[in-house]
């Protein structure tokens, strides 16, 4: 009898818990990559559908023009810092306490956070890379955003990724530079948008041509969290892609 009561008690507790999660205050609709996926994102921000400078895009190297050197990318990400790693429901996001920075057009943009997509969002001649990291920077004065995309290909193990995957929900020590390939002097540059709602435009995009590496196990470990968190490629319209 005691056992039956306990079982009933446990069932009641379970259903209460389920109920509590159904009526939590954040009951409004959330965007995602399935039922409320990219085709429905106009319900969250009109810009996602009405914008004409959206990201990601397919890069066609043969149609790119040479770089306006005023906008050359200068990276200074070599900073030893602590960082908070979270699973924010869309991606694994790393927020350094003190980020590095980049400089373009004489303006400094500070690293706010970086996060990962299970496959690359931008494609190059239709090729989708195994994974991508987006390093999101902001000009503290104008608030403009600049994102550096680091593609990942399957290859040797990247110790920093182990640190991040094992550090979800914790603070870890990182140097954002450890995620970059050796060659950061060659990239594609264009003006696009955030690839998630609110899809805000006027974002400076730099896509590093040289990929970093992650082992098969690391890619699989990451994809246990997110495998299809990439937005389909958007129309280029009248934009030009610069190449360096
Ligand atoms: Zn992203």
Word description of this protein:
- With 244 residues, the protein is an alpha+beta fold.
- It has a single domain, classed as Alpha carbonic anhydrase (Carbonic Anhydrase II), CATH 3.10.200.10.
- The chain contains four helices and 16 strands.
- The chain has helices spanning 2-22, 47-50, 159-165, 216-223, and strands spanning 58-59, 65-66, 74-76, 81-87, 92-96, 101-104, 107-117, 123-124, 127-128, 131-138, 145-154, 171-174, 187-193, 201-208, 212-214, 242-243.
- The strands form two sheets. Strands 2, 3, 4, 5, 6, 7, 10, 11, 12, 13, 14, 15 and 16 form a 13-stranded mixed beta sheet that branches. A three-stranded mixed beta sheet has the order 1-8-9, with no helix packed on it.
- The longest helix has 21 residues, at 2-22.
- The radius of gyration is 20 Å and the shape is globular.
- Zinc ion (ZN) binds next to strand 7.
What are the main properties of this structure?
binds zinc ion, disordered N terminus, 4 helices, alpha+beta, 13-stranded mixed beta sheet, 33% strand, single chain
